Amino acid sequence: MNSSIKAVIFDLDGLLIDSEPLWTEGRNIILREFGVSYSLEDKKKTMGGDYHKGLEYVIDRYSLPLTVKEFEKRERRILDELELKKLKFMPSAQEFLKLIDKAKVLRAIATSAFRPRLEFVKNILNLSGFAAEVTGEEIENGKPAPDIFLKVAEKLSVGPKDSVVLEDSKYGVKGAKAAVMKAVAVVDKRFSDDADFTGEYKPDLIVHSLKELSVEGLRQLFK
Fold first, then answer.
1. Is 11 one of the catalytic residues?
2. Of 84, 85, 158, 210, which one's alpha carbon is 20 to 30 angstroms from that of 178?
C-alpha cells in the first residue's frame, strides 16, 4: 500500500524561527568570559542535536570550569533576553504554515528545546495551530535518534511512513530517516551547506528556503 502525506513535522530552531544567530551570540557571550569563541565548526557539531550533549562538547572542548547545569542556566537567561528583543520567523515560515493548513494536513513540532522555551517562543511570535508538540525532555534519546519523531507520530496517530520532517540540521535529517519518515533539509547557508547532507545524513530533498516548498512538492516525495 502506498503512503501518502498525512503530517508535516517541523523542527523549531533554524527552521521555523531565526534563532540560530541568537544561539551563537548567546554562547559567545558566555565563552568570551573564558577567552574563547564559538566557531562555525562548533556550531556544526552541535546544531540540531541533543542539547545537553552539545553543552558537554563545548565544555570539554574548551575545558570550561562549568557544569552542564551551570552553562545551561546562564545560556537560558541570555537567550531569553536576546529572543525577546530580536526573535523573528524564518523567511516564508508563516506563509508555508498557512499552505499546510489550507491543504488540511496535520502539522507538528519536534524540537530538542525544552517545553518552557517552546512556550516562551510561541508567546513571542504567536505561534500556534500544531496538532502535536514534542520537546526534549519527553524523550530518552535526542536527535539523531528517531525517538522524537516517533513520539510525534504516536501523538498524531499517524504512521511514520505517512509523515515528512522538515529540518535544518543533519542530525535531524538522520533521525527522521531512522524513523522511516521522509526528510527535507532546509539548508541555511549561514551555518551549513549541501555537502553536510550526504551519506547517512542524506535527505529525500534539499531546499534553501521554505519558499521553495509547496504541499504538492511534498506529496511528490511519496510517489
1. yes
2. 210
